[in-house]
Design brief:
This protein has 432 residues and is mainly beta. It contains 3 helices and 26 strands. The strands form 5 sheets. The chain has a 12-stranded antiparallel beta barrel with strand order 2-4-5-7-8-9-10-13-14-15-16-17. A hairpin with a 2-residue loop joins strand 7 (121-132) and strand 8 (135-145). The radius of gyration is 26 Å and the shape is elongated. The termini are far apart.
């Protein structure tokens, strides 16, 4: 009978979780595929460097995170061992939704600190609503069922996240307000996660009352080249209305360090050391630095391919000059490091324009009606499209009747706004 009740409660929690995801999807429909939170980054041009990644996953991208946590507190012997698996997907270019865990699977048995094998699940969604230059912001919500045995306890959380990223540094600050929805008298597993990029994070779980809580994590990340990064993080965490005492007498200050290696745009491998309460209030006699968790994590994004870093301006200029020393046409656009060079090219009516792709990634030069439209279009009857092509050269011809003074913006149909220079332009000038 108890097992049946537990299964029924778990099913209800799962149904509520699916309702959160469905609501997120309905909300996304009102804004289209992209554009609500600024320029989109496609999975075909996903940055290898964590500092260059947006708050949310690209549309259609799936990210599977597989952390393994070990309690490395003095005398703990590495137990319990936990697997808080998470799967997130880009519903649109600005909305990410998924499922995750605070503790997840606990695999070391009752003698190894695991009273149950599986006792919590969370569904969450994050919407990037603003992006301008190095700054971006998002808001989100989560629904958690924990514990799952002996009657499900539900809690919810609202999240506001700000990110400032300018290669090679990124700062991520979040404010999370949680509140118990049912069974507020029980304790539950809760995660203190330090965000790194999109849904990649590290941290540790803790046990806390199912009541009103606040968590404010801050992460500073520094790139060491495009394939490695170091991160340091700190947070303020606590129960706002504890059953006894006050927030001021019981808050925690977790902290952590992490190292991440990115062999490709599709894979991150890292390790993080977290201290659940390094500087907060504590009645414990033991030093707080003795309480710590080691987490080794793997994040996989099937189908993601890397965006190459942009070449410095001098290198682009040199590449352009070298590529146009002896051209079949004097008018050329060079694509290198996901950058159009020159950004503005003057051509007379009837001119043939060569497009040279020096990247390994496929690109196109496609006219649009206005900068940032990212849809094929024409200006004053003038349009062009090389089609998508890999390393090599294509060409197109400007109509002989094109009017001098016409300016036609263009973009890459493959990468849209994810190019380092999202738009270039052709200016029609009178023949000399």
């Amino acid at each position: 009978m108890t097992n049946r009740a537990s299964c029924t409660s778990t099913a209800r929690a799962a149904a509520a979780a699916l309702a959160v995801l469905a609501a997120a999807r309905v909300a996304a429909a009102g804004y289209g595929a992209s554009g609500y939170g600024g320029t989109a980054v496609s999975r075909e041009a996903w940055p290898t460097a964590l500092a260059l990644r947006p708050l949310t996953l690209a549309r259609g991208m799936v990210e599977i995170a597989a952390p393994v946590g070990f309690d490395v507190t003095s005398g703990a012997g590495g137990e319990p061992v936990t697997l808080p698996l998470a799967v997130h997907a880009g519903v649109t270019d600005w909305l990410t939704a998924g499922i995750g865990h605070a503790r997840g699977l606990c695999v070391t048995g009752a003698d190894g600190g695991c009273a149950t094998v599986y006792d919590d699940v969370t569904v969450d969604a994050l919407a990037r609503f603003w992006s301008a230059g190095a700054f971006s912001a998002g808001y989100g919500a989560a629904l958690t069922a924990a514990p799952l045995h002996g009657g499900v306890a539900l809690s919810a959380a609202a999240r506001l996240e700000l990110r400032v990223a300018r290669d090679p540094v990124a700062l991520d600050l979040a404010a999370i307000y949680g509140f118990g929805l049912s069974r507020r008298d029980v304790d539950r597993a809760a995660a203190v996660r330090f965000p790194l990029a999109a849904s990649v994070s590290f941290g540790a779980f803790e046990t806390r009352p199912n009541r009103e809580t606040v968590t404010v994590p801050l992460t500073a990340l520094v790139q060491l080249g495009s394939r490695a990064a170091l991160a340091a993080a700190v947070a303020l965490d606590g129960v706002l209305d504890p059953a006894s005492g006050s927030f001021g007498a019981s808050y925690r200050v977790p902290a952590g360090l992490a190292a991440i290696v990115t062999p490709s745009a599709a894979v991150d491998v890292g390790a993080g050391l977290a201290f659940p309460n390094l500087w907060g209030r504590s009645d414990a006699a033991r030093p707080r630095s003795d309480v710590r968790t080691l987490e080794v994590f793997l994040a996989v994004r099937p189908g993601a391919t890397a965006r190459r870093a942009a070449l410095p301006a001098a290198a682009v200029a040199a590449t352009t000059a070298a590529a146009t020393d002896a051209p079949a046409t004097p008018y050329a656009i060079v694509i290198a490091g996901h950058t159009f060079a020159p950004a503005s090219l003057e051509v007379p009516p009837g001119a043939t324009v060569a497009v040279r792709n020096l990247d390994s990634a496929p690109h196109s030069v496609t006219s649009e009606r206005a900068p940032g439209a990212f849809e094929p279009g024409a200006v004053a009857g003038v349009s062009f499209d090389t089609g998508t092509f890999g390393a090599g050269e294509r060409a197109f011809t400007i109509p002989a009747g094109a009017a001098p003074g016409t300016v036609i913006p263009y973009y890459c149909a493959t990468h849209r706004g994810a190019m380092r220079t999202p738009d270039g332009e052709l200016r029609i000038v009178a023949p000399r």
